[in-house]
Amino acid sequence: MEESGPFQTNGGSKEMAEPMLERRAVVAALLRDPGDMLVVSGLGSTTYDAGAAGDRAFNFYLWGAMGAAAMIGLGIALAQRSRRVLVLTGDGEALMGLGSLATIAAASPPNLAVAVLDNGRYGETGAQPSHTSLGTDLAAAAAACGWRATTTVTTEGELELLRARLRSEPLFAVIKIAATEPERFLPPRDGAFLQQRFRAALGIVAG
Amino acid sequence: MDQVRLESGVAAWPDAVFAVLQAAEIRQVGYVPDAGHARLIARAHADPATHAVVLTTEEEGVALAAGAWLGGQRAVLLMQSSGVGNCINMLSLIANCRMPLLTLITMRGEWGEFNPWQVPMGSATPAVLGAMGVHVLRVERADEAAETVRAAAALAFDSSVPVAVLLSQRLIGAKEFRK
Fold first, then answer.
1. Which domains does chain A have, with CATH numbers?
2. Are B128 and B67 in contact (CB under 8 A)?
3. Of chain B residues 92-131, which have a CB less than 8 A from chain A?
4. Which residue in A72, A106, B18, B87 is deepest, having the highest Cβ count within 10 Å?
5. pTM of the entire structure?
């Protein structure tokens, strides 16, 4: 690696090509044939991506509560030990809940995986550069927090293996995606509806 | 933490509160360490049926409780009044999703407080919780702790609303700062 200052963007590095993966296609690939996997999506584009891959009762979409996605995944994973839980979120949402990487590593649930779609941008607010394009490596941060399995994926050829690992390991994955903004897909956003639908699908009796 | 007080039974109320939490089938305990909650935290860790989750910041516990509820378990969040401010926006998750939330909050900045940095958030705690739609109950005496937590748990989980129990600093005992 050549020397780079803490605020040099990845785009300025000769070794880092601009990410080419398209987010909508990535999420469609990762959520193909989801079975009864429980999915939590972070607010903004990741929620649109997860909805576009096919709305289902086992998807819990966040439209707010920025920074909550991974911790909601932890609560579900501890409660539903026999099921797989996947948190899909963006770099900005993950950064706001950075401490939860340490909390989850400490709790170390075997059935929870987190995948961060990283475009290095705050896409909802005008594509301002996020910390991941200013020097922060979320996969390295997760490893430093105690996650034993972390990976960074940059090519389409790695997605099939990633899809399998996210369904079988306590994996923290960063997926470098292009800074594109596909057409918005708007899944349900009534939180009470979403939680009741999710619980009903799990067969949880109210009360 | 003052172990002598705990072991002498003078401060037996945390054990009574833990029994109430168990009777309410609380299975996840998220906490930011606090001396006033030390006994509850130790009991939670010692119970194999309870997931005790140490948090880096209090709002994580709001999200944890939401996830627990989605997965069919009940949670409690233990924190100090200084952590309430950290939770403000995260409480919108509970409101929007019409989920229960039970939180037990040890108060600082109100009774013999030595540290002025605890006073602003301690003073604002009831108003902040109220502004976000959290029902607030308060415990002044040890003998009312268990019954108040029992009522709070019933309100939270039966009526799907957020409920906070403020454990007064007089009950906890003002932290002593010795040179």
1. 10-201 (3.40.50.970)
2. no
3. 92-93, 96-99
4. A72
5. 0.93
CB atoms A64 and B71 under 8 Å: no
| Contacts of residue B96, Cβ cutoff 8 Å, sequence gap at least 6 | A63, A64, A65, A190, A191, A192
Residue B47 near chain A (CB below 8 Å): no
Give the CATH architecture of domain B3-172: 3-Layer(aba) Sandwich (3.40)
Nearest to A99 among B56, B72, B92 (CB): B56
Q: Give A26-77 pLDDT, tens digit per residue.
A: 999 999 999 999 999 999 999 999 999 999 999 999 999 999 999 999 999 9
Query: Which residue in chain B is spatially nearest to A69 when comparing CA positions?
Result: B63
So what's the ipTM on this one? 0.93
Contact B90 A99 (CB under 8 A): no
Residues, chain A: 207
Rg (CA), chain B: 15
Could you tell me the two tokens for A121? Answer: 């941008």
